[in-house]
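Please, structure for the following, as tokens.
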Amino acid sequence: MGDSQYQIGVIGLGTAARMMLPAIAAHRGMALAAVADPVQEVRESVGAQWGVPSFESIEALVAMQHLDAVYIATPTEMHAQHTCIAVQAGLHVLCEKPMAAHLEDAQTMVVAAARAQRVLMIGHSRSYDAPIHKMREIIESGALGRVRMVTQLSYTDWIYRPRRPDELDPARGGGITYRQGAHQFDVIRLLAGGLATQVNATTFDFDPARPATGAHTVVIRFADGAIGNAIYNGYGAFLSAELSDDVDEGGFAADPAAIGARRRAFGSVRGGEQRDETVAKRERAARMHRGQPPFHPSFGLTLVSCEKGDMRQSRNGISVYTAGGREDIALPIPPGPQDMVVSEFHDALSGLRAPVHDGRWGLANLEVCVAATESARNGKEVALTRQVAVPMPR
């Protein structure tokens, strides 16, 4: 590619996009070309901040000349439509998770990208955390034997952060299982090999004043007998940061006081019903990028049990436990998982390597979300049919 750059447009300027924009700008092989959002104040402000043109719609943005790709961070229910518009315009697509609200929509995205011969990648950023990658490297080395159990446990205040109505509605890809379970299932599948076979789940709605799926426990069975356990509670009392050296999801010191304030502010309203919540969400999105973190981000606690030992992530890297004792492995702290997402997308566009997090991988993660919701509804284990294995390193 030489010194050339891929020109990328960003569609939807919420929290996810605000976190991704600095990563796009920092990558020498990518160049931010334009942004789009239906809210005039938001798109003009972000466009001015980054010195790029802003558009009201995806149709206007994809009509630009010399555009190579788009990053889609619009509401989940719009992902399929926007992906199809982009690939039909000849553009590659990096799409936010969850991939879609329904499996049929996700399948449409995969087919459309394949027909257009465009790259489709899904940005499940939590599996890009350096400790997760290091644990996957150790698993692939065989040093600890086969993976037998993967536990991903997260306790946050997700339900009481400012939300749009769609973010709390499972039919529109909202609620804990779709919005945060998508991260958990991605991490678990990556560490356990990808080929899940069955899901058994229970979901919870603890707060009638803010009705939504706010917690779940999900058991995932794998073809080789391994088990994944995903536990998430988004009601903001106990915080799993307490189990992870008091580090939050961004790699900074956790702030319990701020969490209590959010619960008091939004504990009595449904997402988006009051304008104050919508405004608060925009203000929070604008503050999300805090620069280089002092520690590795902690998306709760990830614990891997293998035949010859256990591993967990820590604030400085990972800890490995074997019959010989505990070994702490320090890892360099990258700028953020979004930087690694952008790097994987760039490498896919360049033909350097196929992405792990392609459309089929995203579809498999979404299938776990859908199966967990179905299992919780009918009280039965649900079989999976769209799973794919983790590609072996080359």
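The chain has twelve helices and 15 strands. The chain has two domains: 6-125+338-356, 127-336+368-383.
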